[in-house]
Amino acid sequence: MVNVTNAGPGRPRLTKQRRPGPTATAQILDAAAELFTTQGFSSTSTRKIADAVGVRQASLYHHFATKDDILVALLEGTVTTALAVADQLVNRPEPAAVRLYALLNFDAGQLLSGRWNLGALYLLPELRTERYAPFRDERQKLRDRYAQLARLVLDDLGIVDDARCGLPFRLVETVINERSDSEAGTGDSAPIGAATIAEAGLRVLGWTDLDAVRASAATLVLQENNGGR
Amino acid sequence: MVNVTNAGPGRPRLTKQRRPGPTATAQILDAAAELFTTQGFSSTSTRKIADAVGVRQASLYHHFATKDDILVALLEGTVTTALAVADQLVNRPEPAAVRLYALLNFDAGQLLSGRWNLGALYLLPELRTERYAPFRDERQKLRDRYAQLARLVLDDLGIVDDARCGLPFRLVETVINERSDSEAGTGDSAPIGAATIAEAGLRVLGWTDLDAVRASAATLVLQENNGGR
């Protein structure tokens, strides 16, 4: 595909677009996501990212001041939509089990379908520094919503067990490991899908009647904003 | 503590031991584990590791030829003992649910109690290269043992669902994320412990009678070799 891109401030030029994405920012994010997840964050320079997009390094800085800013944008993209969905769900009238199932199914689906397995970057030590605090806060909010819905499910079952409340969120993030192993060529013949995760997220709480929940969750219409975990 | 260490081939010297460990190799592994998990693998040079141990870089190469060799040794240490326990368990006469519970409980306990959260390095892109193939094979073997026991539990329940077989292994590795979040200061008031993981690993398969399993698993005596996941 040949189109006019803005290779630098005020310097439009005719070039072959190397990365998918409607804007230069989207193309930079896609290139960075591939390099961070396949070469490592610390081994990836902004120069390498610029080369992969086909722009000069100076143009890249026009969109992102630092490499950390690129990673922050990518990581926030993995949480924003799931958090918006979770915010809707905590305020809906359906039984908690149906709402938690819907959240797990949506979130696992997103983590599985993103073009790059960005969740594999969640454990980077760099993420503990101050500049990643806004991302950590967003992910913590999502984790809180999961725990809130899980506690309601346990209430419905008459069970008091705080430690179990954290399990559904942990389960949803296991699709990151599943993808990583699968991409490394050590995948299973029967990979774990979003529905399996959603059911497991209820089972770990002690909920066993999955048929009714699955049917109700399928009729639940969620408002999705842009982005993608 | 002051003792005589071997700071280089044939060069014993009196020095203050900086890292815990009975041998120079153990001290190098401890220092590397801390640096890899807190500063990142790619940001850690063998020079930094040598400095943290208090030996010269040349001495370090006497124990490990490359930085990758150090990481391989650390990663293998996270799987070896669990695999030995799993190998015993697949051949024992107890019900599969009891054996799977025992494996989950042992393995989660190990992952939680190691001095450094080495599982956080499992998703490094570096691990996909050829030199990490032996580690990947060992971890895959452990994953197979989990799936084998899970399939036996499902058989006992009369359930056919291949996708569920992978869930117990995924659950045990979530303690890595739990530790990581807890170390980053975003921990829960009720962190997920080994027993919670062990019970959840049976619940995801559809097993609900946990009391009997917990009691039987507690009486099961396992042979542990050295090492530690």
What structural category arises from helix and sheet content of chain A? mainly alpha
Radius of gyration of chain A over all CA atoms, rounded: 20 Å
Subunit organisation of the chains: homodimer
For the record, the CATH class of the largest domain in chain A is Mainly Alpha
H/E element string of chain A?
Answer: EEHHHHHHHHH
Low-confidence stretches of chain A: 1-7
Q: What's the total helix number of chain A?
A: 9
- Domains of chain A (count): 2
Major interchain interface with per-chain residue totals: A-B, 50 and 50 residues
Helix content of chain A: 55-70%
User: What fraction strand of chain A?
Assistant: under 5%
State the distance separating the first and last CA atoms of chain A.
28 Å
How many β-strand runs of chain A?
A: 2
